[in-house]
Amino acid sequence: xxxxxxxxxxxxxxxxxAMSLTSSVSVAALISASIGGVPIxxxxxxxxxxxxxxxxxxxxxxxxxxxxxxxxxxALPDVSGKYAAPYVVSASDHLFNDIPxxxxxxxxxxxxxxxxxxxxxxxxxxxxxxLLWGSVxxxxxxxxxDGNTLLFNFTGLDVTHLPNGDRGANGTFYVNITSDIKFNxxxxxxxxxxxxxxxxxLAAIGTSSQEIQEIPEPGTLALLGFxxxxxxxxxxxxxx
Length: 240
Fold this sequence. Notes:
CATH topology: Jelly Rolls
Domain Ice-binding protein C-terminal: 215-233
Protein name: PEP-CTERM protein-sorting domain-containing protein
Number of strands: 17
Keywords: Signal
Signal peptide: 1-28
CATH class: Mainly Beta
Pfam family, one: PEP-CTERM
């Protein structure tokens, strides 16, 4: 039976979780989230502006599939009780749009899970993934796969200690995730309204580890370990 231990270290403005485990295979992933943050440099930047409302192939080669109630593309105006546009800051928007908008609600098309999921089949294997994660809720989940094999996931609780669905500037984070194992599919899901996101960044395999590590001004750090045993994943978190 594998053993797992979790250690918590808290410093000013940084939340760090480390998990050590004994298993045949392990995965380590690092999440960095900050309000007004930006993706790493030299990435592929996808804004989903031209994506069909039914999904399909994006301009950067990501195949998008919608599943569930009200899962799909969205844009202003917000729909009360269902979804709200992520809050955009011009510091990162210039990487995704030729004419960056001023700070405020996302003026372009974005994606929502509704009560369901959005699947992003990537055009290759990657070890870095960035996204603008709007109005973060505790029940929002971002899962990473190799084909149909789940590798690891993060929830809104890994992004902020107050994942309360704030629709203002303090509720949207740019989230950067790196992994020591390659993935080729990402699924955003939520059992309640809703998980809104936009502005996905990808770095191809071969991007230097230094480039990936140089993620600007992280507001939250969490290092998670996952054991892959008998085709299943178990995760142990001990808070405190």
